[in-house]
Fold these 2 entries.
Entry 1:
Amino acid sequence: MSDAIRESGFTNEVLGWKAWLPTVDLASATAEQMAVLEESHPQAKTSDYYLTLAHHPDILRQRSQAFNAIMYAPGGLARAERELASTVVSRINRCVYCASVHAQRFEQLAKRNDVIRQIFADPKTAGTTEREKAIVQFSIDLTLEPAALSASHIQVLREHGLDDGQVLDLIHAISIFAWANRLMLNLGEPVFPST
Amino acid sequence: MTSTAPTAVATDLLDSLLDIQPGTPLHAVRHAREKVASATQASQDLFFAPVLENNLSLTERLWVAYYAAYLTPQPLLAAQYLGQLETQGIDKGVRSNIESGALDALDDARLAAILRFTRTLIESPVHGDQQALQALQQQGLSTEEIVVLAQLIAFLSYQVRLAAGLGALRAAGEAR
């Protein structure tokens, strides 16, 4: 990563994650558990996170299919903008591990991290363009007050150039991080590199 | 699973609750991301299967779902899960204790622990720590049950936001 950000307890550095519950032991894993690990993520077999979720392989399989379709499908909202939303949601929910991973992905795709520094410092005012600010604000609103979401929120996104397919991609990216953040926050904790 | 053959697409819960009809622009937009819609519905079907072997009972899972939707609040999903609970014949006293947050008053200590965990993860996930898992273990929940419970609450956090987003898109009408 070009330059390290450490701000308000958040970072774009590579972190580890350790489980609080016993993980699935690969030596005694079922064929189905092995298959789901292989299709979920290239490093799933050495990841405490996937080895925890593999306790129920069918549920993990559907979660991974939803996650991968939302974050990696071609077309629609730019992938960097999906990662931007994921980073905002993770910052709001205070998932330090998720925020670090998705800050790195944003930077890989966008070749800059100016907005990441802003999100970590103060998400409410973050955004380097009007479109970015609209995406950030919508991510905050849907995360904190889903019950208050209305047509006017959609109208603002349309005014900033998002078509409805892109709006749906944004809703998906925000919603899947409501899911992902809770698993990462509530089943284990980040491991910081020794300095 | 007894069969791996694709089943005819049954009802999609969110399309049905939000009245997103085939042939409408919103239906086309949503189903252009068919992998997402189908994994969402497949998760729904798994979480609310009549039996999850050696795991949370359907009634426990439905209370979690109802409480999560009630706290958010997401009225359409809350009504959906309450309706499913009612077909199982629920106790009015249990319902009123849950709605008023009087979880300590529940006779079922295991359900109370499950719903305390639900409330923490829905309202303030950063506060769900290692002790929160220990409280579940003290009520006899296995590792597999805790993983399913965390996945269920996390899924519901996703579902209520997806429902809110689709509802707002529907209310906004067709883009001009």
Note: Chain B has one domain: 16-172.
Entry 2:
Amino acid sequence: MNDLGELSLTGSRPRADTARLAIAGDLDHTNADQLTKAVEELLGEHGAVRWLRLDCAGLQFCDSYGLASLLMVRRLVTAASAELHLDNRARALERLLVVTHTVEYLTGACDDRETEPREARPGPLPENSSEGGT
Amino acid sequence: MSVVRASASEPTPTTDTPRDAGGAAALTVSPSGLVLEARQSAAALLPQLRAGEPLAQVVPWLAPAHDAACGRAEAPGPVCDVVDGRAVDARPVRHGDGSITWWLIDVTVVRSLRDELRLEQARASFLAEASAALLGSLNVLRCIEISADLAASRLADAALVIAPETRGRCQVASAVTGTRTARTVLRRIDTEQLPGLAEALQGFPPVPSRWIDPALAPAWLAPDGFGEIGSVVVTPLPGHGVPAGALVLLRRAGSGPFSEGEETTAREFATRAGLAMSAARMFADQASITDTLMRELLPPTLQHLHGVEFAGGYRPSQDHERVGGDFYDVHPAVEGSGGTLAVLGDVCGKGLEAAVFTGKIRSALQALLPLAEDHPRLLRLLNDALITDAHARFVTMVLASVTRRGADIRLRLTCAGHPPPLIIRADGRVEEAATHGTLIGALPSIESTTFTTALAPGETCLLYTDGITEAQGGPLGRDMFGEDRLRRVAAECAGMPAEAVVERVQMVAAQWAGRNSHDDMAVMAVTAPHTHHLAAVDGRGPGRFTA
């Protein structure tokens, strides 16, 4: 994360069946395509990803184009027979998803704001799981 | 080394080292101007040189310098002259006996190199100046005229820049050296009349001047009062992939033809001029596309319709894209539409792509108008029409169906992924319309709920896009305008006419954003006008009113 809001995407593989992508900075019309590309790569290079967790803790701003790319990510994840989770959503992002009625679509019926692990879901991620670049 | 020695000499010629030092030509001259000795090589450079003869006779151009050098105490300086087409530098060395040895150096090659360098520098500075002048304008006509002016100022006695033919006519800018500026005319020309012109306009290699017989030049080529044409060069102006036109350089009879170097310079200039003209033309094309789209896509001017006040305001983002993603429309009631349908929406994305998407949505909505009685159904149909596998771009919008019921207005509002409208009551209360729904165009299935309310005279329904609430600014420069502030501004607008509400909201949000860049801001107000009861119907029950 930085003051300029430049987008940074950090992919990692905390578990064999789970891919994680940390989004930091601003996600807008100038760079949102990078997100779909990064997800495509993550899903492509690791076969058998069952869960994709987007860590939105560092996401400072998301415009409508950013939301469109999140919706596209959901399509890609579904096409790969995986599940999408949006972790650590800030209030602004939460609001955007609520106003546009996309919370359920993007996150399934489950409430991903809970950090409690549940049965049949991937457990909490180790704190410093970041490795590898964008 | 052989030395031509003077037979009779005063003072006695010496043979000390400076006079004998090898290399360059040298001649030693006595204070009285007699050549004491001269080397053979000096004789080669100055064939009439004889030792023992007066300098004024054998090397007249050096005599004045020698006399001057002898008459002064200080060290003499060098002189130079051109002898039989060779440039010669003469550098004096004074000896103890007052005689001076003039070292003669043939500097012809150095001189010509220096002259070439000077020419090259002049050429480079002209091309740099031309580039700077040409880059300064993105106006096609201006670019053509600047090119003609520059060419006439340095390359020829007159210059014509001819743009490629459009609809049978060419733009021709002509400039004459010494006159102030080029003039452009649109004329029908037969490009075959001037050899090489048709080819140059198609981007073929230039035709050297000697190939064109000036007698063949058509009459229109020479500017008024130019006189007889002596030589002509036609050079293509290469553009970005397509020819940008042709440059024709003219010289008067008697000025001599164009040299090879001048033609090269002309070609290099033509490259720059062509690129500049081509860039200007591309910009003009783009601007005209944008203007056309703008005319088609800009929100309409709203007015009162069926006794309801509609007002809209749109403030596009100050970013480079002039066409934004916000839109609004008011469609008069048609059969099945369930009243007048007002729509305000926000398309995901920016620029041309967003503009085209907006156009698509507006046409689709127009076609779906007869189904506007049922908002959720209309939105479902619109969603089906817009969804595509290629991308997940979407639109968020509010539908407002408006019907007049006596003095009141019946309002049905449905949001699709859009911030809910605000209802400004007559007493200053501001309510949020309880409607919500899914954005349109990205999800396979959508849902929405409709909110119905009534507006009493003076009450307003305010529809807005998030460009208003998300405008960043304020005293600290980084705060969002936000919904609370919008509600406060709305409350102050109670009882105002629709136009005034729109003006007020836009003004406050714009002031908040200040100089910060902001997203598109669109606002629409639907207001029930204040009415006067007709005296004839006792002024109570529902019935006759005037707007």
Note: Chain B touches chain A at residues 325, 346-350, 391-394, 396, 417-419, 436-439, 442-443, 446-447, 519 (CB under 8 Å).
